[in-house]
Amino acid sequence: MEKVKYISMLAAIFTQITGIIFLFINITIAVGLFFVYFISLLVLLVVFIKSRIVEKKEDDQNDYRDY
Question: Residue 59, class by beta-carbon neighbours within 10 Å (0-12 exposed, 13-18 middle, 19+ buried)?
Fold first, then answer.
């Protein structure tokens, strides 16, 4: 889960920077890079939501407020 998070973050950073550079060189490649950037952000969002759900389940299992 952590590897996917870091790979997605690096891909988002790399594709955003190269997409901005390619806006001045070739617009079609830039659009493709921004599409990959959007996909990597979606993957990152899903990973964050999934990790939060797992943390919430662990918190619910270790809830000792009723003692």
Answer: exposed
Q: Are 36 and 11 in contact (CB under 8 A)?
A: yes
Region 25-43: what's the mean pLDDT? Answer: 94
Decide if pLDDT at 65 tops 90. Answer: no
Return d(Cα 20, Cα 22) in angstroms, integer: 5
CA distance to 17, 43, 49, per residue, from 58 (Å): 37, 23, 14
Instruction: Check residues 64 and 12 and name the one with the higher pLDDT.
Output: 12
Can you read off the two tokens belonging to residue 25? 């060189």
